[in-house]
Each structure stands twice: as C-alpha cells, then as structure tokens.
Amino acid sequence: MFDRASLTALLAVLDTGSFAHAADVLGLTQSAISQRIKTLEEAAGTTLIRRTRPAEPTEAGQRLRAHAETLALMERQVRSDLGHGTQADITPIRIAGTADTLTSWLLPALPQEPGLFYDLIIDDQDHSDQLLTTGAAAAAITSRARPIPGCDVHDLGVLTYVAFAAPGFVETHFAEGLTPETLTRAPALTYSRKDRLQMAWAPAATGRARLRQPPHYVPSPDGNTAAAIAGLGWAVNPQALITPHFTTGALVNLRPDLTVDTPLFWQVPRQNRAVLGPLTTNLLNAARARQGHG
Length: 294
What we know:
The protein is of the alpha/beta class. Helices cover 46% and strands 20% of the residues.
C-alpha cells in the first residue's frame, strides 16, 4: 500500500516539473517533498523520478502516477455519489487526442466541471492507445477498434482527409500530373515523423506502393494549412478544415475523387467510466452530428 501523502507529492513534482515548485504548491519544504519521494521509491523498490529539468517519470513512476490519478478520479466520483460535491477537489485528468480532433471534437466536448482540470496530450491516433496502456492517459481517441484490456471502446465514426496544395505549387510541381516522379520531387508537409497520411494517400493516387516523399515537419493542422497556402508544400488534412480554402481558391484539391478515411474510437478505462461519462456522451453526440451532416 502506497502512502497517499507520498503519492500526492509525486503528482506535484511531475505536474510542476521540480521539487521546489511542488513544495510551493503543497505548502511544504523541499526537503519534506524529497523525503516523501524517497519513502515512495523505497516502497516501490525503484527510482520513480528522473531528476531532469523538468522532472520526468521513469516507467515505474508513470505507472504510479496513473495509479494516483485513478484513485483521485474514483474518490471524486464517490464524493459526488455520496452527495458531498466536488468543488473542493482539484482533480487533473490527462486525455489523449489527435491534433486534428482537438478543436473540432475534443475541446467543445469537454464538460466544464468545478475542480476538474484537463491535461490534453496530442499524439497521432495510431499511437495514442500506447498512452493508455502505459498509464500516461486516462482516456484516448485512437484508431484502435479492439478494446484495450480493461477499457470500453466507443465508435466515433471516420475522419475524412484530402490532399491539397496552393495553385502556384500545383503549377510548379505537378504540371506533368500526379505521378510517382512528381510526388517524389515535390515537398510534402507532415505533422510529425509518426504521421502516415501522405504514405496512405500517395500510393493510392499513383498506384506505386512505396514513394519517398521529402517532408517539411509542421506540427499542427493549422500550420500545415498555412504553409500550404504559402506554397511550401502539399499536405493531407481533414476535409472539413480545408474545404473553405477550396471555396476561396487559396488551395486546390489534388484529387477530389480520392480521400483517406480514418476510423476513430474513444477508449475509456472502466474505472474511469463514471467520472468521464459526461465527456463520453458529448463525444458520441458530436460524432453522430458529424455523421448526420455527411
């Protein structure tokens, strides 16, 4: 059994990034924080925090962090069920989503509940399930349809992507058409090294299984869009985000007949089912509304 005060110290160090800041937040001395972490590490039999700047959890520390946050969420729910309210409870909750779904789905769906503070982790949908399995997130939007052990899974439908570029970029780089050769030479705009959207779209557009695509890395959908409008490269983004730019003529749909549909799922550990119930409901309603509008 891990001491609750020590777990609180662990969360404070990892949330603030240092022992000194954790001491300020908890109203303790830095030596008291160090002692609590030492007690916790002795109980766990391993190092829990890397003394870096900012402080980071080891793998074991991440597991204990997830354990402490789950306990806080469960206690919050019990207090609510017993009619004691939750206003006094400051409860952080980490949720993994994709940059593409952040502004369109996730942010509008977050319930505004007193004391509940969101820590949103942005990652590719093909990798966000790993954040659940390692305990780095309390729930996640992922492309994995099969339930992660211990989780409920909810179908959010599909997110449709299109490829686009500025008219001048098309004239310069694709004057000979969309071919393996032109796509190999034309700069691509990619969200991160985990992003595989161009690798899915380009082979479908050209019929060649593998293409080398020189990338610019621009780590946001809006940044990719702005870079494409500036003529820096071609990109693949959600259709709903790009359609207005097709209307104004700032961007051109490279292949209107070709889209990439990415299935998305909401995975929630069962122990978080009740406290995240309002968020799950909001997300499912948003998904149904999107599907109803095509």
